[in-house]
Amino acid sequence: MATTPQTSLHRVEAYERAFLMVSAVMLIVFLGALTYAGTMHDVHLPGAGQRIDPRAIYKTPPFDHPAVHETPSGDVEAVITAQAWIYLPTEIHVPVNRQVRFILSSADVIHGFEIIGTNVNAMIIPGQVTQLTHTFRTPGEYRIVCHEYCGLGHHTMTAKVIVQ
Ligand code: CUA
Fold first, then answer.
1. For residue range 147-162, what is the model confidence (pLDDT) as tens digits?
2. Is the separation of the CB atoms in 94 and 162 below 8 Å?
3. Nearest C-alpha to atom 1 of ligand 1 is from which residue?
4. Which CATH code fits 54-163?
5. How far is Cα 139 from Cα 14, in angstroms, rounded to an integer?
6. Which end of the chain is more exposed for a tag (fewer CB within 10 A), N or C?
7. CA-to-CA distance for 26 and 32, rounded, in angstroms?
8. In angstroms, what is the span from residue 115 Cα to ligand 1's centroid?
9. Domain limits, the chain
10. Other beta carbons less than 10 A from residue 126's beta carbon
């Protein structure tokens, strides 16, 4: 049976209604997820404690002495600064099978921080402190690369992690 223009119009309306319903449900689910993350898991924008004046970065602890060090409680911390187009230090040594806390900030523009062969992948944003942890399970040499375009020398911006 051939469809008349009237019935095909009804079908379009039915599809449109269905898609609107799906969109509305998705919005509600996403809003719910945001609310859940914000209230139950404390996911939020960086607080005052994670901010830093990028012009004073090399005078502001811990970035006044970028290096790997062990805290009194025995945690391994790697303090690294990024600026066009180097990381400081350019090479770090960390122990295998121990959690390393990376503490990162930028002196100028946005840089990336990716450790090849791991899931370490973060942005380093001027004015903010980026923190993440990783446990290297395999000794060896890992390359850090900048994956945010940061100017002419972006492709040369690398550093090394030696896991031993
Ligand atoms: Cu730093 Cu690209």
1. 999 999 999 999 999 9
2. yes
3. 111
4. 2.60.40.420
5. 60
6. N
7. 10
8. 13
9. 1-44, 54-163
10. 18
pLDDT at 49: 67
Which DSSP string do the residues of 48-117 spell out, in sequence order?
GGGB--GGGGGGSTTTTS-SEEE-TTS-EEEEEEEETTEEESSEEEE-TTSEEEEEEEESSS-EEEEETT
Quote the CA–CA distance of 123 and 126 in Å, as a whole number: 10
CA 48/CA 51 separation, integer angstroms: 5
**Among the atoms of ligand 1, which is closest to the Cα of residue 155?**
2
Residue 92 dihedral angles phi and psi, to the nearest 5°: -125, 155
Mean pLDDT (whole number) for 84-101:
96
pLDDT greater than 70 at residue 79: yes
Q: Which atom of ligand 1 is nearest to the CA of 149?
A: 2
**Ligand 1: distance of its center to the CA of 152 in Å?**
9
What tokens were used for 104?
């990162």
